[in-house]
Structure formats: structure tokens, C-alpha cells
Design brief:
With 66 residues, this protein is mainly α. The chain has a domain at 21-59. It has helices spanning 2-21, 23-39, 44-58. The chain starts with a helix and ends in an 8-residue tail after the last helix.
């Protein structure tokens, strides 16, 4: 019985949080977690360089004004 309660505890906690903050805010939280996990495999330095390269490619090779 203890193992069943232990397995379903995270689900009960998630349902409590959904009721507490609302469906839309919880959905936005999950979207944020998903986006964070997409960028998580790289270090901060690599992520900044990748974002800078993407921005530079989108702006046509001109650096953004500082």
C-alpha cells in the first residue's frame, strides 16, 4: 500500500498545484520547463554564442548596436 501511495504522490501534488494556480498558469509553467530542457544540454557560454550567431544570421550579418 505504501508503494502505491508513493507512486501516486507526485500526481496528487501536480493536481493540487493545478487547482491552486489555475490551468493556464500551470500550462505556461510546463511550456517554460519544456523550452528550458531544449536549451539545457549546452553550457551558458555555448548558448550565448549560439544565440548571438542566430541573431547575427537573422539581421544579415550586422551586429546589434550596443
Amino acid at each position: 500500500m505504501f508503494l502505491i501511495k508513493l507512486v501516486f504522490s507526485p500526481l496528487r501534488i501536480a493536481l493540487f498545484l493545478v487547482r491552486l494556480v489555475g490551468y493556464s498558469r500551470f500550462g505556461l509553467f510546463l511550456v517554460g520547463v519544456a523550452i528550458g530542457l531544449l536549451f539545457a544540454p549546452s553550457t551558458g557560454r555555448e548558448l550565448r554564442q549560439e544565440l548571438a550567431d542566430r541573431i547575427e544570421a537573422l539581421t544579415g550579418g550586422t551586429p546589434a548596436p550596443a
